[in-house]
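Priority: low. Protein: Outer membrane lipid asymmetry maintenance protein MlaD. Input follows.
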Amino acid sequence: MTSAAERAEFWVGSAVIAVAAGFLAWSFSGSSALTTRLGKSYELRAAFPNVDGIEPGTDIRIGGVKVGRVSAVQLNPESFLAEASFSIPQAIQLPSDTAALIQSDGLLGGSYIELQPGGAADNLAPGDEIEDVQGAVSLITLMMKFVDSQSSAKDETP
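Result:
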């Protein structure tokens, strides 16, 4: 005979597995919901000097709204720049002077690529490269520059 404690453990374990399966299903449905809602997509590229925090699956956003995901990140052996490839729904036609910036979701948040559409009359075609880019900014580097500038200012004061 099983005791009441064993039955309770069984039901709690079953509930934990059901919740985990629900979260798994929810995470997969969220990634395909954007593609389903906006239809087919096309590939674009951008070459950054630094892609710290960007990897396949990273969000692509326009005006803070998620419109795609990074599909690949690789090093160009000729230019030594990191090339990110990503998909944008065909319903979103970006001007050819669109800028791509690597942004951060705060101090502890992850990174994402923010696209800032320009005002050019012609649009980017599938496979085109976004020329106007800004790579990732390292928080440690910024802090070191600040500390260095403060110590330099202190040394110059009589």
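The chain has a mean pLDDT of 83. The beta strands are 41-48, 59-62, 65-75, 82-89, 99-104, 111-116, 129-130, 132-134.
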